[in-house]
Amino acid sequence: MTPRSDPRLRLLILGGTADASRLAAAVAAEPRIDAVLSFAGRTETPKLPSIPARIGGFGGVAGLIDYLRAERIARVVDATHPFAAQMSRNAVEACAAVGVALLALERAPWQAQSGDRWIEVDNLPAAAVALGAEPRRVFLGIGRQNLDLFAVAQQHAYLVRLVDPPRGPLPLTQVDVVVARGPFDRASDRALLASHRIDIVVAKNAGGDAAVAKIEAARDLGLPVVMVRRPQILPRPTVASVADVMDWLAHDSSPTERGV
Ligand code: NAP
What we know:
- Residues 253-260 have low confidence and may be disordered.
- The longest helix is centred in the middle third of the chain and has 14 residues, at 85-98.
- The protein is of the alpha/beta class.
- The two termini are 30 Å apart.
- The protein contains 7 helices and 12 strands.
- The chain binds NADP nicotinamide-adenine-dinucleotide phosphate.
- NADP nicotinamide-adenine-dinucleotide phosphate (NAP) binds next to strand 2, helix 2 and helix 3.
């Protein structure tokens, strides 16, 4: 805990994304900011930042409120993945309850370009259905947590990319695993999709550049993409770049007052 006499700005960054790591590096260079980066603990070997880190859930809205109070957090930046909706909702509620200013760092969603063959769906169960009845060779670029949702579609052969090697059997019968950590590049992803003879890609619409390579690779190869739309999160002030967050941190007013 930071001593009460410490005049630095106490900042909590909710992380788990490349943007959160970039923001952590930027605030590390600011002596007036005393920041902590929070990870959910899903990745076995998270890339630790140059600022203090904490790992694990807070215990819902009540737990986050306790944390904000105990650590005398003055600002929160939600730099979680756009699909980490629960954490983002908790942050909106907890920050409102204790009067702590909250800003979300979130990239705009990817947009289909002319020639793209996107099938847009609202959630992962709908993505499993959208793959169709005919057996296909599917690249699942969705992480480990929701693979079981594709167990209803075992007619397909899957290629799954994971940050950590799987600890046990996956819920898919025909599955190859590639273990790799982003950011990824377009040429490598094109080679990966081609070498596994992938004919359709499933992706969450994360936006930003850290995970876009698979979308560009699918574009290059003329492959269809089942694109999962983002979940709804309560309205909150949002910016799209680390520079905009740093600007917000440099000012006293809340982003709402400043029209962010
Ligand atoms: P989620 O469903 O929104 O969160 C579930 C619970 O995990 C939260 O209620 C919270 O537990 C805990 N949690 C999530 N993010 C946390 C953080 N940064 N620090 C501390 N606790 C956190 O989130 P998720 O979709 O499981 O994602 C988990 C993490 O992976 C997030 O940090 C996210 O940025 C990252 N990530 C997610 C995706 C994705 O597609 N969902 C992709 C890439 C990275 P308590 O209620 O106990 O506080």
